[in-house]
Write a structure and sequence with these properties.
Largest sheet: none
Order of helices and strands: HHHHHHHHHHHHHHHHHHH
Distance between the termini: 14 Å
Number of helices: 19
Shape: globular
Number of domains: 2
Number of strands: 0
Helix content: over 70%
Length: about 600
C-alpha cells in the first residue's frame, strides 16, 4: 500500500511539474516574441542582449541547477535520515554559494564597466559589455535561488522551484511594458495593437538599442524575486534559511567533493554551448567589404533553438527523468536483462514522441516562424524568417537523438559509471568545434535547389562557389551551420555511447546475445519510427501548402493550427502502418493504464 502511495505521489508530482514546465516554456516563447517585436529594427542590439544573457545563464546551469544541486540533494536526504541539523547544513551551503558567486559576478561586472572606460569599442561591443555588466549579478541570485529550490525539492515540494523561471519571463515582459508606456503614441485613430507596434518604430535606432538595458535590468530583478519567493516558502515548509558561516561541516566538504565529476561533465557541455554562441556572435560582427553579412546570427540561432527546446523540454526530459529511478533500481538489484529491457523501452518512447515532432518541426518551420515572429508589417523580413527556419529545421533533425542521449547518459549513471559520458562529451566538444568552423562555410544546397531569391540573405560565398555551384546570392550556411554541427554530434554521440553501454552491460552477466536481440529489435523500431516521421512530414508539407498564406494573423494561425490538428488525427494511422505490433504495444499500455485508473476510482 505504501509503495502504491509513493508511486501515486511521484506521478502527481511529475504531471504537476510537467504542466508548470509547459507554462514556463510558453511564457518563454511569448517573451522571445515580444523581444523580437520590440527590437527587430535593431537586430544587432538583440544579438548583444542574447549573447550577454548567455554568460550568466551558463553560470546558473553549471552551478545552481547543475553540479551543486546534483551533489547537494542526496547529501541533504542523508542528513534528514540521520536526524542531523538540516537547517544549519542547508543554510551553510546557501551562504557559501551566495558569497562565492556574488563575489565573482560583481568583480566581473566591474571588469566589464572598467574595460568600457579604458578602451574604445564599436557600438555593438559597447552595448554587449554594458548588458553583460548589468546581468552578471543575476548569476549569483539565480544560483542561490536554484539551491534553495533544491532544498524545496528535497522536502518533496516541486511546484515553486519549477515555476521560478516564469518570474524571469514576466520581468522581461514587464520591462518591455515600461518601454511601451514611456513611448506610447498619441494618435487617436490607431488601435491599441497598432499603437503597440508603433512604439519601436518611432524610437531612433540608437535609443532603441540602448533600451535593451531595460530587459537586462528585468533579468536582474527576476533573480532577486526568486529568492524573495523561495525564502518564505521554505519557512512554511519548516526550514528557514539564514546566513550561517559554518563551512567546516563534513557534509559541505562531501558536497564539494561530489561536485567534481558532475561539474566536469556539465562544464564540457556548457563550454560547448558557449563556443556556439561565441562563433555566432563573431559571425554577427564579422565584416566583409564594410558590411556584416551574418548580422543577427546570434538572435536567429537563439530563436531556432528555443523552438526546438519546446518538445525536448516538455517530453524528452520527462521520459528520461521517469526512467532514471527504474534504471537505478534495476542496476542496484543486478537485474541487467530487465535493465536492458527498460532502457530500450524508454528509448522507443523517445522515438515515438520525438520522431513526429522532428518531422513536423522541419516541415512547419517556416509557418511557425512566420506565425510567432513575423507581423503583418513584415518588420521581421523574409531573410530573417528563412535564417531562423534553417536553424530550426537543422536542429530539429537531431531532436530524436537529443532525447535518446538523455536516456543513455542516465543509464550510465544508473550503473555507477559517471566517467564514460564525460569522456565522450569531451571528445564531442572538440569535434563540435571543428565541425562548427567547417559547417558555417558549407553551401546552403536547399536554397540553391529551390531557386528562390530572397532579398537580404547573407552575401558570404560558400565553399564550392563558382566550381560545383554557381549562384548570385550568398550560399554559406552561417549560423545554420552551427545547428547542423550540433545535430551531427548528437547522432555520433548516440552511436558511440550505445556501443560503450553494450560493453558495460554485457560484461555484467547480461549475455551479448540478449543485448543483440534487443538492439536489433530497437533498430527495426527506429526504422519504423523514421518512416512514420518522414510520412508525417510529407503529409504536413502538402496540408500546409494547400492552405493560402496571408500576412494577417488569422491566416498565419490557421495554417499552423489546422496542419497540427490534421497531423494529430492521422499520426496513429501512420504509426499503425510503419510500427505494426510496436504501435499496438504502446496503445495497449495506454489502455491498460486507463483501465487501471478507472478500477482505482471505482474502488475509492
Amino acid at each position: 500500500m505504501q509503495a502504491d502511495s509513493e508511486k501515486s505521489g511521484i506521478v502527481r508530482a511529475t504531471v504537476k511539474v510537467s504542466l508548470i514546465t509547459m507554462v514556463s516554456r510558453v511564457m518563454g516563447l511569448l517573451r522571445d516574441i515580444a523581444l523580437v517585436y520590440f527590437f527587430a529594427p535593431v537586430a544587432w542590439a538583440l544579438d548583444s542582449f542574447y549573447f550577454a544573457f548567455t554568460i550568466p545563464n551558463l553560470f546558473r546551469r553549471l552551478l545552481g541547477e547543475g553540479a551543486l544541486s546534483s551533489a547537494f540533494i542526496p547529501e541533504f536526504a542523508r542528513a534528514r535520515e540521520e536526524n542531523e541539523d538540516t537547517v544549519r547544513f542547508a543554510s551553510s551551503v546557501v551562504t557559501l554559494l551566495f558569497l562565492f558567486t556574488i563575489g565573482v559576478t560583481i568583480a566581473g561586472s566591474l571588469v566589464c564597466f572598467g574595460v568600457l572606460e579604458a578602451f574604445d569599442f564599436t557600438e555593438k561591443t559597447r552595448l554587449t559589455l554594458t548588458l553583460l555588466g548589468i546581468m552578471l549579478p543575476f548569476a549569483a541570485l539565480v544560483c542561490t535561488g536554484a539551491i534553495m529550490g533544491a532544498v524545496s525539492q528535497s522536502l518533496r515540494h516541486f511546484s515553486i522551484p519549477a515555476a521560478l523561471s516564469i518570474l524571469l519571463n514576466l520581468c522581461i515582459l514587464g520591462a518591455l511594458g515600461i518601454i511601451a508606456w514611456q513611448h506610447w503614441p498619441v494618435e487617436a485613430d490607431m488601435t491599441v495593437l497598432e499603437k503597440l507596434r508603433a512604439v519601436p518604430l518611432q524610437i531612433p535606432a540608437a535609443t532603441l538599442a540602448e533600451l535593451t538595458s531595460y530587459a537586462a535590468i528585468g533579468v536582474l530583478i527576476s533573480g532577486a524575486l526568486q529568492i524573495i519567493v523561495l525564502w518564505p516558502a521554505l519557512s512554511l515548509y519548516g526550514l528557514t534559511i539564514l546566513p550561517v558561516f559554518d563551512f567546516t561541516n563534513p557534509r559541505i566538504k562531501t558536497v564539494l567533493k561530489h561536485m567534481g565529476p558532475t561539474a566536469i561533465g556539465l562544464g564540457i557541455v556548457q563550454i560547448n554551448v558557449l563556443i556556439d554562441n561565441v562563433i555566432s556572435y563573431w559571425l554577427s560582427v564579422h565584416q566583409v567589404g564594410g558590411t556584416a553579412p551574418f548580422e543577427g546570427a546570434t538572435t536567429y540561432l537563439f530563436l531556432g533553438n528555443r523552438l526546438m527546446q519546446l518538445p525536448l523540454g516538455i517530453f524528452a526530459i520527462a521520459v528520461a527523468t521517469t526512467a532514471f529511478p527504474a534504471l537505478s533500481t534495476l542496476a542496484a538489484k543486478k537485474d541487467f536483462p530487465k535493465l536492458g529491457e527498460t532502457f530500450f523501452s524508454s528509448m522507443k518512447m523517445q522515438l515515438f514522441i520525438l520522431m513526429p515532432a522532428a518531422g513536423g518541426l522541419i516541415m512547419l518551420s517556416k509557418p511557425i516562424v512566420q506565425l510567432l515572429y513575423q507581423g503583418q508589417d513584415m518588420e521581421f523580413g523574409a531573410a530573417a524568417v528563412y535564417r531562423t527556419c534553417a536553424v530550426l529545421a537543422l536542429l530539429a533533425a537531431g531532436l530524436p537523438f537529443y532525447g535518446m542521449l538523455q536516456v543513455i547518459t542516465r543509464a550510465f549513471y544508473a550503473v555507477g559509471d559517471y566517467v564514460t559520458p564525460v569522456k565522450v562529451a569531451a571528445v564531442m566538444a572538440g569535434l563540435n568545434f571543428v565541425l562548427n568552423l567547417l559547417c558555417i562555410h558549407l553551401p546552403d544546397l536547399y536554397r540553391h535547389w529551390s531557386g528562390t531569391a530572397i532579398s537580404g540573405l547573407p552575401g558570404q560565398m560558400a565553399w564550392g562557389q563558382g566550381t560545383i555551384i554557381n549562384d548570385p546570392q550568398g550560399l554559406a550556411l552561417g549560423e545554420a551551420g552551427l545547428a547542423l554541427s550540433t545535430a551531427l554530434c548528437a547522432i555520433i554521440s548516440v552511436v558511440v555511447l550505445l556501443g560503450k553501454l553494450e560493453n558495460k552491460l554485457t560484461g555484467k552477466s547480461f549475455a551479448a546475445k540478449e543485448w543483440k536481440e534487443k538492439l536489433d529489435n530497437f533498430a527495426k523500431f527506429f526504422c519504423g519510427a523514421l518512416a512514420s516521421g518522414v510520412l508525417l512530414g510529407v503529409m504536413v508539407h502538402y496540408v500546409c501548402g494547400s492552405m493560402p498564406y496571408g500576412p494577417e494573423l488569422e491566416f498565419r494561425l490557421e495554417r499552423v493550427v489546422v496542419t497540427i490538428a490534421v497531423s494529430l488525427f492521422f499520426y496513429p494511422v501512420i504509426c499503425s502502418i510503419c510500427l505494426g505490433k510496436e504501435y499496438e504495444h504502446f496503445y495497449n499500455m495506454f489502455r491498460w493504464r486507463k483501465k487501471n485508473a478507472k478500477t482505482e476510482n471505482s474502488k475509492n
